[in-house]
Fold these 2 entries.
Entry 1:
Amino acid sequence: AQKVTQAQTEISVVEKEDVTLDCVYETRDTTYYLFWYKQPPSGELVFLIRRNSFDEQNEISGRYSWNFQKSTSSFNFTITASQVVDSAVYFCALIDGTYKYIFGTGTRLKVLA
Amino acid sequence: SQTIHQWPATLVQPVGSPLSLECTVEGTSNPNLYWYRQAAGRGLQLLFYSVGIGQISSEVPQNLSASRPQDRQFILSSKKLLLSDSGFYLCAWSVPPTGARDGYTFGSGTRLTVV
């Protein structure tokens, strides 16, 4: 069965610290897609990144970076030099052959000034 | 550009009352449409999805129903609300047939409190 686990319910860091949000997934499909979404206090989910199962190259976008490791079924998200505006709930999600999202339960990140 | 509108933003309803939440998409044709619910402290649960007018698939048996009377309109309804229907409801769209792989675009959500 497909499953996405975000074991960290809530993380608090002080501004400028680096923080990593963990995501572990389960799927039997060999072709699948992984996503990260950000949900700021306003509630709307904002798309951050998509990776497909055949591309394990890590990606960096500004202060954001993603580490995809098929060997451990993980797709972790790191924010470097965190800022207060990064405070949000972050969701990891999986799509496999069913083309339906399976979301994790989310990790609430609090960045303190 | 494509936009998605969802309303109302917040809603407080008594138990047993009806519900109607509306979602409309602009700037695209024949989108796949989705209703998700986010209960407090929990992840996002897919409630319904639609690949075309009048075509509704239900993921979870429950007190809710959905309809798609027009190509870019998706409505979530209930005849009698339960306390357990409280939550944050999100509408989303993607480009068919496999546009979900490119990511969803979500609406701003409706926070429903059943009292």
Entry 2:
Amino acid sequence: DAEITQSPRHKITETGRQVTLACHQTWNHNNMFWYRQDLGHGLRLIHYSYGVQDTNKGEVSDGYSVSRSNTEDLPLTLESAASSQTSVYFCASSEGRDMNTEAFFGQGTRLTVV
Amino acid sequence: EDKVVQSPLSLVVHEGDTVTLNCSYEVTNFRSLLWYKQEKKAPTFLFMLTSSGIEKKSGRLSSILDKKELFSILNITATQTGDSAIYLCAVEGGTSYDKVIFGPGTSLSVIP
């Protein structure tokens, strides 16, 4: 069965370190998204991609970067982790660009920056 | 600024009760409103609403959209403990990028 997986599921890192969160989907979806979820804010979009070599900034992109070298993967990199980036991160993919079709979410990565 | 507001933010009910969750929005270029259920970790899709006044139904859950008053409700009848979750409302639209704006969620706890 097709799926979307994130790794690691939990990560503790120190302030200033570079961290990369992996997202891999086997739906063959062109569209992939990274969100962070914080209490009181719901899910906020960090970056998104409509296809290979395409990346776009979302609502809270500062301090994050993504790259899309193939259809299956959209890794999220924190260049220099900050305590404000402690959060739960969700990756999602969808068939339709406008999410008129169902979006599938990964199980999330809980990141703690100490 | 585009925003999605949900109320209440948390709710505790007894099994068998009926609950109504509210979602209001101010989003430019509205295209659709989405409801998700989030248990433990990943959100799962419930409904997508694009037209006013047309109820979507799935088992004990139903939802309706009012595009004039800019809100939607999610009803759950005969609640069960398995309905305990965070219910997220999201609106597709926006200005600088046409993506989905999520509300903060309503945390529902159903107690026996």
